[in-house]
Task: structure prediction
Amino acid sequence: MEYLDLSLYDFLRFPLPMRAVGWLGRRYGMQGAERAPMTGAEMGRLRAASRRLGSRTLGWHDCDFCGVFEGNGEYRYYLPDGEIYAAPMMLLHYVEEHGYRPPRELRDGLQAAGQPQWDCRAERLHAVLLDQSQDPEFRCQAAVDLANWNDPRALDALRRAAHDEDLADVAGDEIGRSLAAFVDRGLARDLLVEDLHVMVRYGIDEAAGR
Result:
């Protein structure tokens, strides 16, 4: 899959509109060559923001430029101006090995970004996660990204999702990884892990490196 930078993302169904960054290939080549080189601080912020992969699939994509690196999944960046950027897992490889330079909109946004405040994006993800009429894979996307908000409403929704047997069968590991983020922040000290679905427990253990 290949996109021009900042075009609308439509590769997989997602609860919120996003813009594509770093979806590179032979058709458009190494985009961003004309942009200013990334500073060390910008690179550090990009690495720090590229923590959690979503939309992982069964297949892998080989780098079109060297053929020696493969990736699976997406990073999603929630910026203070309300924009969301989706990038392939290959993004850091493209930057570090092939000289790709992300657009200024993302680089400046990461400089200004902090912990996102509860907003319409969070409300939408919250609603999707708890909507049992939605496809479980679609709800899984919300389970991954709600962990971006350090907010009790996000934690409550993830707790409720963890006890949804149908959803936990499909996305329990992702729910567990998101719950683990709240445990790490000290906001889920009363979480009774032994009462959770086996896949949710697996995700929590994996996030903890156990």
Notes: Residues 120-207 form one domain. Strands lie at 19-20, 61-62, 70-71, 74-78, 84-88.
